[in-house]
Amino acid sequence: MADSADRYDRRAFLARGASTAAAMGLAGVGVPALLSACGTSTTTRSHGSTPGVGTGTPRRGGSVTVGLNSEIDGFLPASSHFDNSGITYANTVFDSLTRVGADGTAKPYLAKAVTPNADMTAWTITLRPDVSFHDGSAFTADVLVANIEALRHSLLTSQALAPVSGVTATGDLEVTISLDEPLVAFPHYLATQIGYPVAMAQLTTTNTTHPIGTGPFMYESWEPNDHFTAVRNPNYWRHGLPYLDGITYKPIPQDQSRESSLRSGTVDLMVTRDPHVIRDLGHATGYQQIADLNQAHGQTDMDFIILNCAADPTNDLMVRQALAHAMDTEQIVKLFGAGVTQQNTSLFPPGSPYRPAHNGYPAYDLNKAKQLVAQAAPNHGGSITITLDTVTDPRLLEIIQAIANMWSLAGVHVTVGQVEQVTFIDNLVTSKFMAYTDEQFSASDPDLNYVWMSPTTANPPISLNFSRNKDPLLEAALQRGRTSADPAVRAAAYQTVDERLAADLPYLWFSRATWSLTGTTAVANFNNMTLPDGSLDRGFASGVFTPTSTWRTA
Amino acid sequence: MIRYVGTRLLQLVVICFLISVAAFLLVHLLPGDPTLAILGPNDTPSARATLLKQLGLNHSLVVQYWTWVKNIFHGNLGVSFLTKQTVSNALSVAVPIDLELVIVSQVIALVVAVPLALVAALRPNKAFDRVATTTTFGFLSLPTFVAGPLLVLLFAVELHAVPATGFVRLSQSFGSNLKSVILPSVTLAIGSIAVYYRLLRADLISTLQEDFVTMARAKGLSTPYIMLRHVLRPSSFSLLAGAGISIGTLFTGAFVVEVLFQLPGIGYQLVQAIYARDYLVVQGMALVAAVAFVVVNFGVDFLLTLLDPRVRRG
Amino acid sequence: MVAADAGTESVLAIEAIPGATGAAPSRRTGLGALFWVCAGWVALMALLAILAGVLPLKAPNFQDYSAVNVGPSVHHLLGTDDLGRDLLARIIYGSRVSLVIGFAPVAIGLAVGGSLGLLAGYRGGVADSLLNALSFVILAFPALLAIMVIERFWQPISLLKLIVLFAIVAAPQLFRVMRATTLSYAGREFVVAARATGATTRRILLRELLPNTLPAAASFALIGVAIAIVLEGALAFLGLSVSLPTSSLGNIINAGVNNDNLTLNPYIALWPSLYIFLLLTALNLMADRLRSYFDIREVKL
Q1: Minimal CA–CA distance to A281: which of A34, A51, A544, A542?
Q2: A139: buried, middle or exposed (CB in 10 Å: 19+, 13-18, 0-12)?
Q3: A293 alpha carbon, distance to own chain's centre
Q4: Of C161, C163, C182, which is closest to residue C114 (Cα–Cα)?
Q5: Which of A471, B181, C13, C127 is the most exposed place for a label (fewest CB within 10 A)?
């Protein structure tokens, strides 16, 4: 399956060492809880044969229906929000320039090569010959340039591409992107929303309802909130793929309805992050389940409380420490984790080189919390009052009731509430909140999250650094990780990041989100894709599914 | 008669106008605007201003309203800010779903309620009547968001008899279509059964005391015959009227069922549009739903005047 | 949902006809044992709700993590929920909210809408047409949309605000119901006769029309109570009901259905549903009995 002569530039790769490359300051796009494609390799649960890995000869033909957890608003990367469902759709009808491999590095995929110059301020993307879009038009350098220019000018993604100073076609199949500053993790950015090129026909008409990409499947029909159907691309540049004749996606936001759909046979595959559903299906027979539990690359989706460091009383470090000490994270996971969710008080997963041995995050200590509250209260009018809100999600609603209870045991006055999603995001961006639940930070490389936590972006009136933390030590560490190619320096830098976050406490971690992909026995090999260079793709992670090498068993 | 129809039509127009204004105002009064949903965290003031201009939202409310109304008369209900699909398109998806849900659920409700009421009315306040009344009242206190999941658990998950979610269009397959609406329809029917049973039973009991019934009995006609041929029709009055209101409000009232069963009907799309401040979708759907209610009830009122001239129409 | 059982003028005209609701008047035999059992149950529920503060109940919001999802036991008579809170306490405190949200809007609707309907039905004229049209507009407008929008504005959502919202929805329905019954009675002999003997409008309304029209309207009001209590639960489903951790029967049921609680701990959803069912059945049986008891349609001269 390995295509010839499309290796990542080996010399450059070896010179810089494994798993890192010079980072680039491209921001992730999209709403906070739903970040771009992220890097976590998956571990499969054993039920005899490995779930998601097919055996024997691949069977051609047939169609698969997949239940997704959300619907998207369109198929144009420059103007649509790509949450995990969005990237799943993108992997179906488009291809990304790079993809993250099982070893955590970003490897060229649609692009043949992605090479930096000496100081990482310019990246050259070499395209493959003879790749065409679904409408027959060729994927040339001009098309890629047009795509990137569209992203640079779109209201939605222009902030993300701010560090790009120029894009030019330096050959028929070669594009060079120049940057304001050196960025080591550039290839990882090309595996996110901004790395999926679309055909000129779709680009020039800014059509968001009819995607024309290079991907393994071609658009057939889309009825929002009902289904999206795509059919096999007979001229796919990865010869021999895909195996399926067609694929249909059904967005079913209600977790229990989605689970019922899988169990009743309405869908063949299902994505979820609900721990109860994951546990139920894990115990049931006749299903293959993949959950991204053990991974050590990049950052994982974290569940946490985000505090506003610019508003009273959460602008007081003592108050934040009190809240952290009062939160019994083990209990929270016990109550709501269904035995599936893992407690985690670090930005990085266990086994990650970026995770320090002890990051200093405050341990659960109710007495300490009470002391701190008593100490801090006089500075805030005699009592500490916090409003803790979440979106209309029954699971989060229960969680904040527990957290509010824990905080009140320490002497804090807490009111809980629910806010609709749109207002929720607006309040985060404009700093009109005090304590919100949040789910964020999954990324194949830590630098992808730079813009969400860098103090340089914490400026009014709007900011992507929602918590408004302004820790200069944090910024210094983020910069070191961003610009240094030396893996040891990077590891130390991000360990410092983790320690600084644990000291400054803009985020009160409690657990890692666990995503799962479950399929019936009718579907095979849905998590076993090889990349053009022969290595294994990272596979399902953070709710993103790629259908390319899936086949049906019957 | 002409005068009656004329007055009603005039009332219809006035009410629709008022509803259109109400729908427009209400959604525009919500804090925030579509730029939040479209841009998310990238909602910088300049981006917002540009987008508002693109969407035509930088004009005064009066101008926006007038543009909307004018377009309606040209058959153009507008476009969703979020998905870029036309509102008419969204309605063409939503309306068949709700129509079918309403029809199937009300048929089920009638099929259950009518025989029950017929039997109960023969012996009021006796055992059967008591049990039936209590059971149907129990249905009334069972919320749809409890009944729905229970039904799904039994029929979709355990028995694999029907799909758990999703709507299959009638044009695709009659069998699959029926299977996809049966559970949500039953869930909706549960509440209606109680209401119809109560209304019909009351009417039946009163009709049974009329002289012509005694006469029919004296003539030796059998009870089933009397009930079905002579008693049922004149007693359908309030049932019909109740059905009118029921059906009229189901178009938006089925929201909970639509979410549970993933049926993108009017209620479902309306709520999503409200959350995204998708003004034109909200306005269009609210207007259509309200017009449906008014038309259905005017129709029912009209039928009732035909059936019983005693009842004066205001 | 809300207007599902409002009924129209015609319905009321029928229900107001003598004997329409059951057996012949049985004044002589008293209200019956079943009636008093039901009345006792309703009174007990009301008493529990009112006295909740002084009863020896566990704190409804106290989360005991060592007693999560415990079934009915000595310490927790109805068990606990998924946060370790005592269900008996939560239900009794929750019944306060639900009883109020069930009865208050309907009572207000009856008072405001009902009296307007009585007046409009009797007097007719321009005011009647206007009120009628207004009631139609309110009824036709998707209640869900209106509630969602108004609540966005009116944060934080409190019981009082919910009562007002529900009353706005209930009043037009009760208006139409009263108006319809009044219409069907206004032309009757006893009313004409009363007018002929020089009775004032006020007297006619209070002495002749009200006693005849009220029972029918009250019957619909009862169904309205049922719908209101359950509707509050549906709003909780959307996150539009009273703010947590205040419990209402609706949001307890809602919590009992989510987060896999239906399988983990069905008691959470079961007890409040049973409460609603028993209460409404009792009220229904009482109302029916009262109607057949007070079935006075005699001509008053």
Answers
A1: A51
A2: buried
A3: 15
A4: C182
A5: C127
Cβ neighbours of residue A493 under 8 Å, at least 6 residues apart?
A477, A478, A480, A481, A484
* Choice among A23-37, B264-278, C86-100, C155-169 with the minimum mean pLDDT: A23-37
Which CATH class for the C31-51+79-300 domain? mainly alpha
Report residue A310 as tokens. Answer: 């610019």
In whole angstroms, give the CA distance from residue A550 to residue A527: 7
**How many angstroms separate the CA atoms of B238 and C14, rounded?**
7
Helix B127-140 vs helix C267-293: crossing angle, to nearest 10: 130
Token pair 């008593």 is found at A374
Structure-token match 């679904």, residue found:
A134
Measured between alpha carbons, how far is residue B123 from residues B117, B231, B238 in Å? Answer: 10, 15, 20
Would you call the peptide bond into B149 cis, given omega within 30 degrees of 0 as the criterion?
A: no
A407-445 residue pLDDT tens: 999 999 999 988 878 788 888 888 889 999 999 898 999
- Tokens 């320690």 correspond to A499
> How many angstroms separate the CA atoms of C255 and C269, rounded?
7
Q: φ and ψ at C124, to 5 degrees?
A: 70, -155
User: What's the pTM value of the predicted model, to 2 decimals?
Assistant: 0.85
* Phi/psi at B11 (5° precision): -60, -40
**Sign, CA torsion B271/B277/B279/B280:** negative
Q: Closest-CA residue in chain C for B256?
A: C234
Query: How many residues are recorded in chain A?
Result: 554
Residue A155 contacts B, CB cutoff 8 Å: yes
* Paired tokens of A338: 């269904």
Which residue stretches of chain C have pLDDT < 70? 1-29, 153, 184-185, 187-188, 215-216, 219, 291, 294-301
Interior/surface letters C253-277, b for 16+ CB within 10 angstroms, e for the rest:
bbbbbbbbbbeebebbbbbbbebbb
Cα of A25 to nearest chain C Cα, Å: 38
The helix/strand count (H/E) of chain C reads as: 13, 0
Q: Which residues pair with A289 in a beta bridge?
A: A518
Sign of the torsion formed by the C-alpha atoms of C114, C119, C122 and C126: negative
Tokens (6 digits) for A484: 């240094």
Please answer yes or no on whether B286 and C152 come within 8 Å at the CB atom: no
3-state secondary structure of A290: strand
Nearest to B293 among C22, C140, C254 (CB): C140
Q: Which of A226, A420, A428 sits opposite B275 (nearest CB)?
A: A420
Which of C61, C63, C238, C252 would best serve as a mutation to test chain A binding (most A beta carbons within 10 A)? C63
